[in-house]
Amino acid sequence: MNSSTITEQLIHLGRIASGDGLVEGLTPGQWAILRYFAHANRFSQTPSAFAAFHGITRGTASQAIKSLVTQGYLHQARSKADGRSVRLGLTNKARAIFINDPIEVLVEAMEALPPGVRGDFSSILQRMLGRVALATGKPHFGVCESCAHFADGGGGCEEGRPTHLCTFQNEPLMEEDLDGLCIDFTPEKPGPKVGTGLR
Asked: What domains appear along the chain, each with residue ranges and CATH number?
């Protein structure tokens, strides 16, 4: 099968999984917003990061997000770091409907793959995302443990503090941060990585 056909199938897979009608009264676009904030880490739970992830303007993103805040699916709070930026998260109302997320059929299809195949697929997908992001000038979202900014001090906690560190943000990382999508992601360079941990 040639590359163009494989690419078309990949696009088709995402299209049919996301659905084309209302589910729980929400459009596919609104589900995409909720899905993003469910999977973004705390550094990326902002309207601007969401806009970058989906390749839309900040104004368009803000309007779409505002609608979900008004409907009670997202809550917002001022950042403790600077007091200006806004961070968003799912409300209990949003979490309660995620069992009916239309893309769950795609999640189940992924989970049906053998673990080794899922691992290979993840690696291939990251390489493809990196190439496309570079070619288009878009940010390459990824997760902590494959990021050049991730410093691992061995996991767990030391004197009650996390031993993972984001060297880009200069912030400690909790376990729940590690699998979240991050706008500050930079693919790690080949070769062994030496973690510094926190002191």
From this structure: 3-107 (1.10.10.10), 113-177 (no CATH)
